[in-house]
Amino acid sequence: MNAPLMVGRILFGGFFLFSGLNHFINIQAMGAYANSRGVPWPQFAVAFTGLMLLLGGISVIIGYRPRFGLLLIILFLVPVSLVMHNFWAMPDSPQRMIEMTNFLKNTALTGAAFGLLAVPLPWPNSLSSKSTRTGDERRTDWLTGRRVSH
Fold first, then answer.
1. Element at 31 (helix H, strand E)
2. Global pTM value
3. What is the pLDDT of residues 88-133, one digit of tens each?
4. How many CB atoms lie within 10 A of CB 8?
5. How far apart are CA 53 and CA 17, in angstroms?
6. DSSP-derived secondary structure for 62-73
7. Which residues contact 8 (CB under 8 A, 6 or more apart)?
8. CB 11: neighbour CB atoms within 10 A?
9. Are 18 and 109 in contact (CB under 8 A)?
10. Of 48, 75, 70, which is closest to residue 59 (Cα–Cα)?
């Protein structure tokens, strides 16, 4: 067992799992905040991104199609960072600091997600590793982890 990778998967994926649940628990407040930032269909956007976060977090934790889960996380983080946490457009200094902190946090999380994309598949102790072990060393597709022949 690769303990550091497993702990990292639980912490990283758990963050997004919790964040996704929070989107649904606080959909009204988050929808109002998204609306204040000019997001079209704010409640739908909150629900849709909440689903992205739930699926991405679960995928990382259990290791089933983790690259797809990581792509969902990245596809959430990049636009949200640019639209919702655009600190450079904030005239108020305390609000600018809050948004800059959130922007930088999301930047670090995006970097971690990209880093996890480099971990070879199948990940140890994952659902994918149970279903794709073949004993043959053919190349794997970078997104799905499925074995492919040349």
1. helix 27-36
2. 0.84
3. 998 889 999 999 999 999 999 999 999 999 999 999 988 875 554 4
4. 16
5. 6
6. HTSSHHHHHHHH
7. 116
8. 11
9. no
10. 70
